[in-house]
Structure formats: structure tokens, C-alpha cells
Amino acid sequence: MINLLSLLFVLAGSPVPLGCFEQQPELTDFEVSGQGVIYRNAYHGSPLSEPKMVADLSASGWLFSTQHRVVASYLPHTAWVGQQRFEQLLLLAYHPGLQSEQLVVVRVFPQQSVSWQFDQLLPYLDDAVLTTEDWVVTALWQQQQQAAGWWRPIPGKATQLPELYAGILYLPVAEFDPGDDCPPYPLDLSVHIIHMHSGHTVSPPETVQLSEPGPLQWKLKVQGEYLGLWLQHKEDNWLLQSQLPQILSDCLQCTSVIEHSSWPKMLPVAHFWLEEGAY
User: Fold this and answer.
1) ∠ CA 193-197-201, rounded to 5°
2) By CB distance 3.0 to 4.6 Å, which of 50, 57, 73, 200 could disulfide with 118?
């Protein structure tokens, strides 16, 4: 049931994430309502006999974009009933009370029998927490892995869904007057670089400027011995990461640089052995 606050903001024409920006819809196994009720409609593309509710985030009072992204993921420790592999939904929502957008991440496990509620998501781990004693950070990391997901405020408006590379989310955010329905161009963007499992900042944001509307494209290119991550917009190109980092399972803040030689450019799918005398 939609709560009264959300209904009032919907009727008043409150902004919804991605409303001002061109975004190609993505086909997934899930359906997200404007109130944050999430149903699984299919499993790996095969339709279910009836939709199954996997999360109800309507208690937040937030307004959710129905557009979302789903990624396969893995946690180093037991996350839920002995399951480590899961699907991770990347969502965007609008907080009417604070008049700000939120990045929301929800985990869905293969044998999940319950429907997550909003209070089972945790706030993201901020920079101040990560400077405390190691045992505190370790305990919070364990707690974060047991949660249904996490959320964090966005300082502006997301221009598209976050992109994921090597366990790190890249989220372009436009910073402009929140009273404006849609931003004027040229538009300043900050690309926020976020840990996919805890929401903490991996490195400072990178800034770019768009001269006109249009979709952003991401490209991986070889930069000497390393892989570089580029952001492209029509004729403009920006190097966001000259040495693409990846998260590690050793600790919450552990990362390493991906070398070009170790990046899996091809994956084996079958072996055909030379046989003689079999016919």
C-alpha cells in the first residue's frame, strides 16, 4: 500500500530519478514499482508461473525509478543461510522529505524464501567509520554482509544507472539547483566511485562536463600494462581510471590494480580432444 507522503508527492509531480535523462530500459527478471515493491517475474529469462515478491521497500516512503540493473555477485563470507552467490539489484530512489536521491542496493539469493523489508537494508559505511579501529571495521563488514542490502544518499541527481567494473560502481551524478526540474547544459558531472557491497567511497569522484544531452558510454582500453576505464559522450572522451582497480576479499578496503595480461579476454566454454580409432 502506498503511504500518504509518497502519494502527495506523486500528485504534486515530485521528481523521479532518471526523469530528465535519456535511459535505455533494460530487460531483467524483476519488476520494480514506484513504491519500491520488487517482484521476480522470471528466472534467467524463463517466466515463472506467477510473480514472486522478493522485497517490499515501501516503508521508506521513497519514490523509486522502475528502471534498474541486475548483476550477479558473490560475498567472501556467508551472507544468508549459507549462500554466497546472489543477484544484486541496483536501484535509484527519491526521498521526498530530504528532497534528495538515494542509491539503493538489494540482494536476492537463489533459495530466498522471505521478502525483504526496508529496515533489513543498512545505511552505507561512510568514510568516518572506515578510519576507526580495524576490529570495528571488520565487525561492520561482517554485519554488512548479513544485510539484505544497503543505501546511501546521492549529492545531486543520477544521470543513469550505476556501471559495475571489478566490484566497483561508477555513478555519474549531476550537481545543480534541486529546484530545477531538469538541468541546463553545459552540465557538470561527478562520477562517484563506490564499493558494491558496502556503499563506501573507494576513491574521490572524477569530474566531467557535458556540452549537450545524450547517453554516456563506458569503454575499457589498454593503458600500457594496465586496463583503463574511459567515459565517452559523443565526441568527448575522459579517462576515469588509468589503472582499473578491483576489490579483494581480504578485507573491506582491500583493492588491487588489474594488469592487462591477467584480464580474461576469452573464457573457455568447451574442450574438443583429438580422438583416433573411435569410428
Assistant:
1) 30
2) 57
Q: Please, is 81 exposed, middle or buried when counting C-beta atoms within 10 Å of its C-beta (0-12, 13-18, 19+)?
A: exposed
Q: Find the angle CA(70)-CA(167)-CA(102) to the nearest 5 degrees.
A: 60
Q: Which pTM was predicted? A: 0.87
pLDDT tens-digit series, residues 144-184: 888 999 999 999 999 999 999 999 999 999 987 656 678 88
Greatest Cα-to-Cα distance within the chain, rounded to the nearest angstrom:
77
